[in-house]
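S.,

Sequence below, as promised.
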Amino acid sequence: MNNIIFNYLSKKNIFFLIFCLYPWFLISGPFLSDLVAIILSLYFIYETFLRKSFNEFKNIYFFLFCFFCFYIIFNSLFVAKHFLSIKSSIFYIRFFLFSLAIVFLLEENENRIKFFFYSICLVILVFFIDSLFQKTFGKNLLGIDMQHAIRVSSFFGSELILGSFTIKLLPIALAFLFFVKQNKTIIFSILLIFLSSVIVLLSAEKTALIMTMLLFVLFILKIKLIAIYRLLLFITFASLISLILFSSQSLNKRLIQEFAKNYSDGKYIYSRPHDSHYKTAYKMFKDKPLLGHGPKMFRVKCSDQKYVIDQFSCSTHPHNYLLQILSETGLIGFLFWLIFYLSVLLLFIKLLIFEKSSKDHSFPLYIMCSSILIIFLPIAPSGNIFNNWLSCLNFFSIGVMMFFLKKKSINFLK
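The prediction came back faster than expected:
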């Protein structure tokens, strides 16, 4: 009995349990998310030195990310010269270490990955039930009030990020579904997509809805079905989304009418506030094209009169990853981002065109590449790329992608 208890309390099991619970820590907010990511990274570093196995560090992307981190530290110290910028950049390396820790934990516990998969599915299911409950009664299961007349936020409260969180969690669930399940994956995947789509619709996030539709299109392009079934699946999905949008007056107003009004016949990019943010960021980039103004400095510099467009110019970030990288880190920082994005894009094209089956983990890797391309889509509105919570979520997805990339490479070599 003591041996059984000791086995379950071993560090390997404890850290894997913490990792399985990580999606739940993300719901709690930035503090626990960041803290747990650091703990898992330290565990990975400890095990690496204990085993004297440094293969994870012997790849070009680790060195490129290290150079990027050195660059943004230099930028913060000598260009921005601002504590806010220095604080955000000096330990940014921890997020890539977190991705490496994810690869390590998944490899170390490959025979128990199904528990991690079940944890993610449970998160999606709980959000589905809680979102419906909050939409119906105005309060969620914990008594948290709706913070917006239309938009459901569930456990996130005043943070209206339910849709964007769900669409980043869905691809991870789909990838591991095809990794751990041997049959009925199509049925289960459609169920996961349906539940997630309802959550996104209830959140009334325009960008998250577009990302959901993009992911679904990329999903059916690769799924192992004959062409007519793929077409029927697409028509069914599009019809359901349209039916919900046009039957709900509030959702129709928020997601269609409001978008059309904000777009204003091409006068603004996405909306007037977004348009002002983008133009302000572009003016900042033109002023310092090579080095930028420093990480997280948009919120400081946007009020400078030479960058102001109108009353909507200022915000904590320009709401676009590409423009934030250009305005805050310049062309040098953009080069690192471009290498990363093109690498994932080339891998995605290879998987889409040349991989004809779901063997050797190609389909889970394809799903994760699709997710990363959508998350970092250059033309899409986005959050703050240097935000701690968002970085935890993004590098969570990157770590899972790296795991499947390594699995496929190993199988290919065999």
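Residues 1-6 have pLDDT under 50 and may be disordered.

Coffee later?
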